[in-house]
Amino acid sequence: MSTKVLLPDDWLEHLGSEFEKPYMKDLKARLLADKKAGKKIYPPGPLIFNAFNKTCLKDLKVVILGQDPYHGPNQAHGLCFSVPTGVKLPPSLQNIYKELKADLGIAKETNDGNLEAWAAQGIFLLNTTLTVCEGQAMSHKDIGWENFTDQVISVISSIKEKVIFVLWGSHAQSKIPLIDNKHFIIKSPIPLLFLHIEDFLVVNLLAKLTLF
Fold first, then answer.
1. Which residues are catalytic?
2. DSSP letters along 116-150, please?
3. Single pTM value for the model
């Protein structure tokens, strides 16, 4: 896995040294071992760092934290909660869309779960674990990805100003100590479980928020 070349320059400037650390070498070895054992890993290699390619660090305004990628065929493409166009909406994303309709009055129905348009507008869709084995949720938890994504969160917190962090569920909320108080944090249950979210952030809502 040629990880370094898959990060854009603005991210690589702040994260490049992570790829030389022992935990990352161990992580690469684990991924290779799983692959040699015949396990299918999602997302495909070129899409593991898709969130970084779709949202430049300089343009980042909002961070939405997920946990690990979808583990079904053709679902994961490197953006948390997102699926490629044409793939059936997972329950969590169905709930997100329901809340958009309820809270924002967005009446348009859609079966398109591709959230690349959000990413292009500065919404960074980051899973804290970037890979998973097919059919095995959380199979790559604690193999090193959290070390990397914790550093990603710390970099964002340090160099950016007034970023909005959307933290769904206890796992995402466990990252609060990494976030400086100059930023804004929105907490709620995970989308698979929630009943109502106030101030849900996406696309047009960004222009309406006056949180600072």
1. 68
2. HHHHHTTEEEEESS--EETTBTTTTTTSSHHHHHH
3. 0.88
Per residue in 86-118, pLDDT (tens digit) is 999 999 888 888 777 766 666 556 789 999 999
Q: What is the DSSP track for 70-123?
A: --STTT--SSTT---TTSPPPHHHHHHHHHHHHHH-----------HHHHHTTE
The model's pLDDT over 171-206, given as tens digits with 9 standing for 90+, comes to: 999 999 999 999 999 887 776 544 444 444 443 443
Q: What CA–CA distances, in Å, run from 81 to 30, 38, 78, 167, 181?
A: 25, 26, 9, 13, 26
Q: How far is the C-alpha of 16 from the C-alpha of 38, rounded, in Å? A: 30
Backbone angles phi, psi at 95, to 5 degrees: -65, -40
**Up-side HSE of residue 61: CA atoms within 13 Å toward CB?**
15
Q: Is the torsion defined by CA of 41, 46, 48, 54 positive or negative?
A: negative
List of domains in the chain: 4-206 (3.40.470.10)
User: Hey, what are 18's tokens?
Assistant: 């992570």
